[in-house]
UniProtKB/TrEMBL annotation:
Residues in Methyltransferase domain copies: 44-136
Stated name of the protein: Class I SAM-dependent methyltransferase
Pfam families: Methyltransf_25
Membrane-spanning segments: none
Domain of life the protein comes from: Bacteria
GO biological process, one term: methylation
GO molecular function: methyltransferase activity
UniProt xrefs under InterPro entries: Methyltransf_25, Methyltransf_Superfamily, SAM-dependent_MTases_sf
Sorted UniProt keywords: Methyltransferase, Transferase
Amino acid sequence: MGFSKEWDDLYRNNRHMSVWPWSQLVSLCLRHTPLGKKEGEYQVLEVGCGAGANLPFFCSYSDQVYALDGSEHIVTLLKERFPSLASQIKVADFTKEIPFTEQFDLIVDRGASVHNDTASIARYLSNAYTHLKPGGHLIITDWFSTEHGYFDSGTSIAQDHLTKYGYETGPFAGVGKVHFFDRATIMTLTEQFDLIHLEHQITQVDGIKEQGASWSLVLSKPE
């Protein structure tokens, strides 16, 4: 099923246009990978890069930064914003292909693959594994947890009860598919990788009834 057209519509309507690097992602990259210790040599790919919030962070450590997004509109804007990376930013559905010949030291997925069904996520993880160098890392944040307050809302996709759609209110309104993970599912989907770090975060914001809950992972390809 792959990329949801809803995201292209959101970008065209100037929504989800984050421009600042996500602090959790920055922390995981600097704590668990050699990023910052191999200046100019470290090859980084961000899948589902959106409006490019994390690209300046990666570019501060390497000139070999690549990015993919399914939205032609957002990729056009990114090429204008980062002209030095224009040939390294492409429109693609990363659940179907990663259209680069490079092998990467680091692949980053901040809240991107979570908007797919289980079969598409499994296919994406296989693609990522193929495109990682031995010893390379895959960092994933914002895989929503089954303990999230919105897990019991929405409509499940047929034969895939962990993937929901049809949210009309709340944080998932208008975003298409949303996948929710439990620990067992994560372990099954990532079994070909070495698991370096697994974090489950539950948040409760005062005044908001539904709690948030998400997973973050650091994986590596065995050498």
